[in-house]
Each structure stands twice: as structure tokens, then as C-alpha cells.
Amino acid sequence: MKQIGLKIKREWKFLSIFVICSLPGLFSMAQSNTPVLRIGIMADMQYADKTDHGSRFYHNSLMKVDTAVDFFNRNKVDFSLILGDLVDEGPKDLPVLLEHLSPLKKTTYCLLGNHDYVNVSKPDLLHTTFGMPAKYYAFTKGKWRFVFLNTNALSEYATTPNSADQHEWKTLVDSLQAGGRKNTQPWNGGVDRKQLEWLQNELAQARKNKEHVIVLTHHPLLPENGYETLNNREVLDILYKFPEVKLVLSGHNHKGNYVMANNIPFVTMEGMIETATSNAYGLLELYPKEIKIKGQGRLSSRIFKLSSK
Questions:
Q1: Domain ranges in the chain?
Q2: What pTM value is reported for the model?
Q3: What residues form DSSP beta bridges with 247?
Q4: Exposed (0-12), middle (13-18) or buried (19+): which is 35, by Cβ within 10 Å?
Q5: pLDDT score for 308
Q6: Running DSSP on this structure, what letter comes out for residue 223?
């Protein structure tokens, strides 16, 4: 009996040492399963009080927004992102949509899409109607910088007649058409010179502060399939200089898309407006070593490892 007791004592001692030695690893594993930031994401709700058309069910977007809002609140997101086209025919339908977004417990950041500009007399002031601090802007959360580009800046629908911006847009479109590009559609827009300089400065500041960057746009930058930002290649030239850019997230093309270029994932979110019942929203989770998109409904789920560069 004494020998059995000594054996049990030795085994218990060994087990205790094993558990104590394993605690740091177990603690580290638990930490890695907890995101640094959890963010709600959705795009292209395009709510409007009008008759459905094709695969677009305008009234149903309210029900879909309610579902997404409840999901974001239950998952305790740190904030939410909306990547444009909140409404289909401009701000006249915005108050109703905002009522359905109001139960969100945390801040929502948005940018504008081409449909948000419909029947707008003062496009330069439209961002204030949607509660945005500026037409394009950036903020930081910890070691993550979020950069919101205004890809509507160079377009016919978002510029006033005979303005410098409209002249820049016409010159750009003429050049693209001469080059055989397919993205010179009336619903596409581009990024103006002043904003390109601002983008360069934002990314330089992120490098100085050793931050990761997520770029948000309405019009995608890639792939080049006719839905992309007019001067996407100029924007890409800047982004490719900065390995700090870890993700570009966009809307506009309701089918969704994904391209990896220059070690940057370019993700186009599926549009919420499409289909009568199938929704499209999800979570963007940021970890020390990876990015996860956890899609709900039609929104695709993806995982990207963060490079050490």
C-alpha cells in the first residue's frame, strides 16, 4: 500500500508540473482566439419605398438590416461599417433606414455609394446627411488604422456642372475610353488628386506609428471587371508602396468578389439588397496574426494571415 501511495504521489507531482508548465501556452492559445477588434460589416442595402425590380427587393432591406443589427449587438461588436448605397434613390428614404439602424449599441461608420447621390442638389454636403465627419476620413483603433476613401469624387453624379472636379472627371473618362477600359459607366466614380495626396499621407503616418491599415471603398479597386473605381490603378500604385495595408474592403458589385494582389486581399462584399430573403452581412475580426471575415447569408467567409512585412 505504501508503494502504491508513493507512485500516486509521484504521478500527481508530475501532472502538477505538466499543468503549470502548460499554462502559458494555454493562456496564449486563449488569447489568440480572442479578436483585438470585432466589427459588424454590411453594404448595399439600397432601401427605397418603391416596387421591387428584378432581384432587388427594396422594402425587404429593412427586415435584413434588423437581423444584422440584432446579430451585431449579440456579438458585441466594437463598431460597425457600412460600405455605401444605404439607400437606392438618395436621402429621401434615409430617415426610415436610420430608424432601423438606431438600435445598434455601438458607433456605425459609413461611406457613400453612387445611389446615395440620387436627386442631391449639393453633393459636397451630402456626407453630413449621413452622419459622416467628412467625404473621406480615417481613424485609429489601437494599432489598426481605418481609411475611408470617397470613390465618388470624380463622377458626373457627385460633381457640380463646370466645376474643377467635373472637368477632372471628364478628362479621366476620355482617357479611359481611349484606352479601351470598361469601367467608364455612369454608376462608377474615381478618387480626386487632393484625396490621393491625403491617402499617401495617411499611409505614411501608419508606417511611422507601426499600424496595420484597412482601406474601405464603395467602388472596388480590383478586379477590373467594369465595376472598379475609375482611376483604380493610381490608387493601387500608392497602396502597393505600403505593406502596412492588410485589407481593402469594398461594396458596389452585389455579386461579391475576391482578388489577392501584391499580398493585399481585395474583398468585394455581396450586396444586402439582392434576393427576397437571403441576407448578406457579417463580422470582420482582427487578430494579432490574421484577419477573419465571418459571413452570414450570402456574405462569403474568408481568413487572411497577416504577413510580417
A1: 1-33, 36-305
A2: 0.90
A3: 214
A4: middle
A5: 64
A6: S
Altogether, the residues listed in the chain come to a count of: 309
pLDDT at 33: 82
How many other CB atoms are found less than 10 A from the CB of residue 163? 12
Contact, 281 vs 40, CB < 8 A? Answer: yes
**What pLDDT shows up at residue 307?**
78
**CATH homologous superfamily of 36-305:** Metallo-dependent phosphatases (3.60.21.10)
| β-strands 212-216, 280-286 pairing | unpaired
- Which residues in the chain show pLDDT less than 50? 1-31
* Cβ atoms of 44 and 252 closer than 8 Å: yes
Q: What is the dihedral of CA 114, 118, 124, 127, to 10 degrees?
A: -70
Cα–Cα distance, 8 to 96 (Å, whole number): 70
Identify whether the C-beta of residue 183 lies closer than 8 Å to the C-beta of residue 227.
Answer: yes
| Residue 254 contacts residue 45 (beta carbons within 8 Å) | no
Work out the number of other CB atoms within 10 angstroms of the CB of residue 223: 16
Question: Mutual orientation of helices 60-74 and 94-101 as an angle, nearest 10°?
Answer: 30
Q: What is the grid cell recorded at 263?
A: 499580398
Task: Give Cα 233 to chain centroid, integer Å.
Answer: 19
CA–CA separation, 166 and 123 (whole Å): 12
CA distance 294 to 292: 6
Strand partners, 250: 268
